[in-house]
Amino acid sequence: MKLARLVPEVGMNVVGATPYAESPEECAAVEGRITRRLDGVGANGGVRFGASSHVARFLIAAREYEPDYRFAVNCRFDDAVEQALEALSWPVGSYDRSEQPDEVESVEGSTMQWGARQAFGAESPRRSRCTTRVRSGKSR
């Protein structure tokens, strides 16, 4: 599978956290995201701490359940990716953003924490690797 197929329309961000990171400012990410280009994919900027808010917040929240997690990426998730992960025997968690409560949606920055609870919380199996499938279509 070519890497460009994994890059979503909004671009891809790869985030890495230091072992004791507790905030997005302590996570390094590609500034400006990774995007598709005619010749493949490329970073729009360098790597720096605090460059990601969205994916970094998800990673920090996921570490509440899996403290050893160090990296997160947002990528296109389709049937081919799901089949590849199943072939690797990686567990796939999921959450549906249309089920997000209004009180979560109304607080800036809280969606990622809610999503991590849905994917990694008490209802989900804790594993050393997990891919989270997000259904992002909001029906509100």
Automatic annotation (TrEMBL):
Ranges of Basic residues composition bias in the record: 127-140
Pfam families: ThiN
Region Disordered: start-end pairs: 94-140
Domain Thiamine-phosphate synthase ThiN residue range list: 2-122
Coiled-coil ranges per UniProt: none
Name of the protein in question: Thiamine-phosphate synthase family protein
Source species of the chain: Halovenus salina
